[in-house]
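Hey, resending since the last one bounced:
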Amino acid sequence: MKIELSNEAQIKLKKYFDAGKNLLLDLDDGFGRFSDEGTCALLTKFRIIVVDSNEDLSDYTVHLDSALGTIYFKDSAKDFLDEHLSLKVDPKTQLLTFSNSKELIDKSVNIIEE
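The structure tokens again:
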């Protein structure tokens, strides 16, 4: 499966790939080692989590191919996947936005370095 990164999104994310980090497009749903149990919101909230290359990614079984490299995605969030995934930068907020062919899924995807 692929994810399109706008030029602006590539600029924001390139330094992490260049440093050999892994990027997780994570739904904060209370599942997995990077979600705080019981703190998930009623809103759909995605974030990019930057982790070391030796980090355990067993919760992230979906691999999204991008122009920069693989972005890992949680199996529990598969309902959001389709053939037209994209990460772009909102020109007003300068935050990443995540969308598929049907909807803008999240208009404020934060980047978190673990």
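The longest strand covers residues 104-113.

Sorry for the duplicate.
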